[in-house]
Amino acid sequence: PAEKRERAQELHEILQRANYQYYVLDNPELPDSEYDRRLRELQELEREYPELVTQDSPTQRVGAEPLSSFAEVRHEVPMLSLDNAFDDDELLEFDRRVRDRLNSKDPVEYACEPKLDGIAISLLYRDGMLERAATRGDGTTGEDITQNVRTIGSVPLRLLHNGVPKVLEVRGEIYMPKAGFAELNKKAAEAGEKTFVNPRNAAAGSLRQLDSRITAKRPLQLCAYGVGLVEGATLPDRHTEILKQLNRWGFRINSEMAEARDIQACIEYHKKLGEKREQLPYDIDGIVFKVNEIGLQRRLGFVARAPRWAMAYKFPAQEEMTE
Ligand SMILES: NC(=O)n1nc(-c2ccco2)nc1N
What is the ipTM metric for this complex? Predict the structure, then answer.
């Protein structure tokens, strides 16, 4: 049925673009009712002609049969945690160490990203298709949560456009926005179910579900913040440019991301974001500053635990949620 295949392909493209606008660009163009109508038409078509189902079809986001356990995944490129700074002096010391190691008298440019308080994950794409998603775990070994992650709207099941790398590992944070968290707890309380203490725990609990149909109902977001394994492509040579490329390929990146020409500008950025922290639609527990030039990152490398080229400057802990 050639015309059925064409119709399925057309619906597929309309739904995929609507998904990108809504979940990644926060700029919905299709009313929900229109989205649902077309999704039902595609589901109907795929029921009639199962050979039309592709693994990146928008119909494949509703969750599958529950798993009995999560398989283990080994990270070829370790997922490291971040060193912490708690005041301006510690951040200045970080910059001094960086410039000493680079033997550079010039200021170093930094990328600035709010540190989302969620769960770090790794997404592996092969020929543009999402192959597996895994938690950070201990940095070397994590859990395969692909079934659950496929249900998250801001996670591309296939990279947009062509000319994508053969292998691309994207790293990011899965988090629950404050509004979605409040709504989830309100419904849970009304239904006499357990509520979550904070958005981070709610996100972690939603990703630990063996039944991905439960995860599919949770308001989770993915924000990309870096790459791991890359084969068959040359990425830009600055971190902020890599993130913009990821956004073009279909990933959500943080709208507050910025470049700071030196460490003084980082301190000003940290202060500014600290003042608007309560107004942000998601929890953050600091700012991550990264040396922006990839060549310099390579020269700095990592110490055992954390990269020498990055520092998380934390905010004071928020007063814990009252029960
Ligand atoms: N949590 C978070 O938002 N992160 N975490 C990193 C990170 C961890 C290791 C390297 O980069 N970057 C951002 N924005």
Answer: 0.97
